[in-house]
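Final report, closing paragraph on structural work. Over the funding period we assembled a curated collection of sequence-structure pairs, and we close with a single example.
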Amino acid sequence: MKLFVLCTLLIASVAAASPGQRAPTQGAKGGSSPFEVAGREVYRPVVISPKARQILQLRALALKLQKEDGGTLSAEHHAMLQAKLDAINATY
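Its predicted structure, as stored:
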């Protein structure tokens, strides 16, 4: 459970640090928007770092294993996930 919370918090912090796609906002002049170019709404692409991508994959695996284990991770699965998280953190 601690690993799940840790992964969730880490993903939330990565998501908060990268702006991703945002809806255009109305400017003070009514129709202008910082994301409006030549009358079209333009969105920035979502950029996910390799570390964030690996953590998202690890989270998906953790959720799958948790479901298979009946709601609580087994000791073996927890140790495996923790080792993978440690390897990701050591790489970056």
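The longest helix spans residues 50-68. The longest strand covers residues 36-37. We thank the funder for supporting this effort.
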